[in-house]
Specification:
globular, 7-stranded antiparallel sheet, mainly beta, 6-stranded antiparallel sheet, 15 strands, Jelly Rolls
Length: 208
C-alpha cells in the first residue's frame, strides 16, 4: 500500500508549517519544519550597544553644542555606572519626567537573516524604585522611506526584566538592502528613573 502523504513530498514543496517525525528515545515525536530548522540552525543575535545611543531633539540629532547627542554623565538622558567602583555595569538613565528619544546606529541585516520570519527587539530594563510603571516605545523603521513597525514593551517594574517587541515578517525587507533604525522613547514617569542596561535583536537564521 502506497503512503500518499509520503509520496506527495516527491512533488510538493514542504513549508515551515509542515511536520516531520523524529524518534525521541523510542517514542515518535512530531515537530514542524520551522521548529526543526531553529533547532539545527539556531537563532541569530545582533547586539545593540547602549553606549552608542544618540539623543534626538525635535526629531533630529542633537547639536554640536550638546556633543552631537552623545550620552554622557551630564546629558539627559545620561550614561553612567551603577556605582563608580563596586558595580561597574553601564546603564542609560532617564530621570523622572524625562522622556527624550534616543536612537541606536543603523543595524544592517546579515546575510543569514530570514526576513520571512518575525524578529524581536529585546531590552533589559527596570525602574529605579516601585511606583511608576511606564512602557518603552521601541520605534523601528526598515531602511529609507519606511513606516514605523515597532511598538511598546510591557510595563517596567522595579525588577530588572527582559522586555521585547516583535517585528513582523511582513514589515522586514531582508538582506542586502534592509537595515533597521531603532529609537527608544520611555513613557511618562513622574518620579522614578527608567534604567536601560542592555539591548539586542533576535532573528531566525536561514537554513542555507
Amino acid at each position: 500500500m502506497v503512503d500518499t502523504k509520503l509520496s506527495a513530498l516527491g512533488t510538493g514543496t514542504p513549508t515551515d508549517a509542515d511536520h516531520v517525525y523524529i524518534n525521541d528515545g523510542g517514542t515518535s515525536a512530531k515537530i514542524t519544519l520551522a521548529t526543526l530548522r531553529t533547532f539545527l540552525v539556531g537563532k541569530g543575535k545582533i547586539a545593540l550597544d547602549i553606549t552608542s545611543l544618540r539623543e534626538i531633539v525635535s526629531d533630529e540629532t542633537d547639536t554640536d553644542a550638546n556633543h552631537g547627542g552623545i550620552l554622557t554623565l551630564d546629558s539627559t538622558p545620561r550614561l553612567k555606572r551603577v556605582t563608580t567602583s563596586t558595580d561597574k555595569a553601564f546603564k542609560v538613565e532617564w530621570i523622572g519626567g524625562n522622556v527624550d528619544e534616543v536612537q541606536f546606529p543603523p543595524v544592517f541585516m546579515p546575510p543569514d537573516f530570514d526576513s520571512s520570519i518575525d524578529a524581536t527587539v529585546h531590552l533589559l530594563a527596570k525602574m529605579s524604585a516601585a511606583g511608576d510603571v511606564p512602557t518603552i516605545d521601541v520605534q523601528v523603521f526598515d531602511g529609507i522611506g519606511d513606516t514605523e513597525m515597532g511598538g511598546p514593551t510591557a510595563a517596567l517594574s522595579s525588577t530588572l526584566a527582559e522586555l521585547s517587541v516583535t517585528l513582523t515578517a511582513a514589515t522586514l525587507s531582508g538582506h542586502p538592502l534592509g537595515f533597521l533604525n531603532i529609537s527608544l522613547i520611555p513613557g511618562t514617569h513622574a518620579t522614578q528613573l527608567v534604567e536601560l542596561y542592555a539591548a539586542w535583536i533576535e532573528y531566525t537564521r536561514k537554513a542555507s
